[in-house]
């Protein structure tokens, strides 16, 4: 009798109208699961993309600073500690105010070997707009971000004035004529708008303080205090190893807030999905009220009847969760081209977001969503099937 009931409800004997009702009942579970999966993929992808952009373009995973009193072979020492070191790049840091007309913008200048620096993975993280030009005369070649160039009202080939900030070896600011040889963008406005690049050989002329020279380390693994301490222990006391979290604390604080917000949304939607499951259970029991009364009259234990409905509800919920996960994956992958187009559209309202990020399908994350939602669904189903005990055999 119970097998016939299950077969009529969710098995091969289910009629077309009944199956359609089941699909309609599952849709809220499917849609809420898909929403969570899309949000999870987008937020996690954006966070990973922002961290990667800052790692490659701004400060590396770790930065080594020194006062220059004890010269050592930094690359050899660092590589002896870790095998996952992708890159160790010398950088000369400086600061300046850029003037063009009535506009002035503070800049962080990075002196690098542009021929080798903008290659490999970094070449994929940075987009250059237009053709890079050459400079004639004594002007300082400058690679300027698209956002800064727009703020100053200049473009490739234009000239501007840089007021170099003293770095300890000078006591007064120094004006320098610079020429924009290329305009770039990383896709993230917060990173682009205050950074510019010059050739390392030119940076050495203007920023000669030993503390201006740093080593940027790019690793395959995320920031780790353990790795940071390992590198620090291999270097003389005059060297300091700082992580990306320490050089960009505001960025990481904002990313942490985003992760907490996603977790809160995840919990709220899981509770909402539990409510939908509870509704499905109540509708099942209400529709089969006469059948349940008959089963009790025939002597079937209440526990066995309740267990049967629990299995049916959780079975339908599991199908809805799996379907929602796959739909979420499809939506996320399908909207990726749209995000890329929006990232290049120059919409001011979207300038604070990184839209050019990689969407990575994670089975582990999907399994976590499935387990959490299923656990909430089981609790909701257990509450809903308690109505079975209220049905009398003669109802």
UniProtKB/TrEMBL annotation:
Protein family according to the UniProt entry:
Belongs to the ABC-4 integral membrane protein family. LolC/E subfamily.
**Pfam families from the xrefs?**
FtsX
Where in the numbering of this chain does the ABC3 transporter permease C-terminal domain appear? 264-388
Q: How does it sit in the membrane?
A: Multi-pass membrane protein
Membrane-crossing ranges are 262-285, 306-333, 353-383
> Keywords in UniProt for this one?
Cell membrane, Membrane, Transmembrane, Transmembrane helix
Q: Which GO terms describe its cellular component?
A: plasma membrane protein complex
**Protein name as catalogued:** ABC3 transporter permease C-terminal domain-containing protein
Compartment(s) where it occurs, according to its Swiss-Prot or TrEMBL record: Cell membrane
Q: Can the keyword ATP-binding be found in this entry's annotation? A: no
Question: Sorted alphabetically, which InterPro entries does this protein's record hold?
Answer: ABC3_permease_C, Lipoprotein-release_system
**What Gene Ontology terms for biological process does this UniProt record contain?**
lipoprotein localization to outer membrane
């Amino acid at each position: 009798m119970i097998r016939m009931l299950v077969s009529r409800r969710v098995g091969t004997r289910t009629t077309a109208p009944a199956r359609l009702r089941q699909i309609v009942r599952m849709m809220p579970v499917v849609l809420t699961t898909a929403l969570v999966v899309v949000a999870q993929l987008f937020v996690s992808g954006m966070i990973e993309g922002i961290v990667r952009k800052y790692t490659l373009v701004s400060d590396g995973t770790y930065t080594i600073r020194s006062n220059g009193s004890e010269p050592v072979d930094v690359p050899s020492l660092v590589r002896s500690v870790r095998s996952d070191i992708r890159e160790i790049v010398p950088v000369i840091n400086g600061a300046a105010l850029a003037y063009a007309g009535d506009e002035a913008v503070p800049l962080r200048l990075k002196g690098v070997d542009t021929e080798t620096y903008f290659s490999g993975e970094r070449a994929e993280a940075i987009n250059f707009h237009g053709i890079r030009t050459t400079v004639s005369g004594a002007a300082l070649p400058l690679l300027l971000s698209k956002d800064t160039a727009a703020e100053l009202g200049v473009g490739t080939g234009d000239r501007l004035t840089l007021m170099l900030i003293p770095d300890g070896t000078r006591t007064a600011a120094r004006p320098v004529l610079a020429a924009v040889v290329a305009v770039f963008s990383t896709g993230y406005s917060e990173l682009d708008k205050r950074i510019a690049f010059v050739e390392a050989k030119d940076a050495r002329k203007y920023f000669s303080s030993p503390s201006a020279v740093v080593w940027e380390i790019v690793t395959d693994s995320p920031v780790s205090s353990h790795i940071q301490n390992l590198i620090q222990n291999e270097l003389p006391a005059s060297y300091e190893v700082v992580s990306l979290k320490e050089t960009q604390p505001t960025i990481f604080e904002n990313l942490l807030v985003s992760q907490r917000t996603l977790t809160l949304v995840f919990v709220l939607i899981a509770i909402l999905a539990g409510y939908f499951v509870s509704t499905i259970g109540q509708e099942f029991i209400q529709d089969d009220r006469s059948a349940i009364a008959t089963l009790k009259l025939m002597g079937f234990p209440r526990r066995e009847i309740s267990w049967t409905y629990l299995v049916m509800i959780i079975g339908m919920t599991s199908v809805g969760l799996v379907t929602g996960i796959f739909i979420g994956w499809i939506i996320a992958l399908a909207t990726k081209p749209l995000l890329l187009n929006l990232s290049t559209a120059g919409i001011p309202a979207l300038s604070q977001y990184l839209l050019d990020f990689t969407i990575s399908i994670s089975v582990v994350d999907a399994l976590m969503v499935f387990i959490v939602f299923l656990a909430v669904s089981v609790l909701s189903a257990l509450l809903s099937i308690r109505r079975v005990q209220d049905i009398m055999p003669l109802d």
